Automatic annotation (TrEMBL):
Gene name in the database record: kptA
The enzyme's E.C. designation: 2.7.1.-
Keywords noted in UniProt: NAD, Transferase
Name of the protein in its database record: Probable RNA 2'-phosphotransferase
Pfam hit, one: PTS_2-RNA
Record GO terms (molecular function): NAD+ poly-ADP-ribosyltransferase activity; tRNA 2'-phosphotransferase activity
Organism in which the protein naturally occurs: Aquimarina amphilecti
């Protein structure tokens, strides 16, 4: 039987990023869940989660959303949380430009307010146009925003990079954004 890694990845995103209480799972302050507890509690709701399945999802997820600790006894989401966790990011210097994909219906709000983290911990940015296109395409015809991250950094705004390469910052003021179609 083939493992449905996409379905399991969505389940893990829900549990490790947004709602661990759905299966009565506890995350530590850094977002880590005990692997054996996750498997045990997840299997009360679904019967297909094993350590092998978790390893497959972590290894094959195209966005590298999840990570194990060194001895693979704990797992967490790399970013995108709407719950309070401290992922222990260290500020780093970003490249001169980063990109954000969205759709046209948000254009005017972004022109007025900039990019806001909304219910997440950070605004998510990428180094590659292709990634921004994929993100924007999830909700319709994408528009790509070019963020002058080098200017932001020189003006004292902090950036972080998650383990899976996503660039993060608290907000992007509209004066740092260039709109591209």
């Amino acid at each position: 039987m083939k493992t449905n890694t996409k379905q399991i990845s969505k389940f893990l995103s829900l549990i490790l990023r947004h709602n661990p209480g759905k299966i009565e799972l506890q995350l530590d302050e850094n977002g880590w869940a005990d692997v054996s507890e996750l498997i045990r509690k997840a299997n009360k709701h679904r019967n297909q989660l094993t350590i092998e399945t978790l390893k497959e999802v972590v290894a094959t997820n195209d966005k590298k959303r999840f990570a194990f600790n060194e001895d693979e006894t704990k797992i967490r989401a790399n970013q995108g949380h709407s719950i309070k966790v401290d992922l222990e990011y260290t500020p780093v210097q970003p490249p001169e430009f980063l990109y954000h994909g969205t759709v046209g219906k948000f254009r005017e709000d972004i022109r007025r307010k900039g990019l806001l983290k909304m219910s997440r911990h950070h605004v998510h940015l990428s180094e590659e146009l292709e990634t921004a296109m994929k993100v924007g395409s999830r909700r319709g015809v994408p528009i790509i925003l070019t963020v002058r991250s080098g200017d932001m950094h020189r003006n004292g705004i902090e950036f972080y990079q998650s383990d899976n390469g996503v660039w993060l910052t608290d907000t992007v003021a509209s004066e740092y954004i260039e709109f591209k179609v």
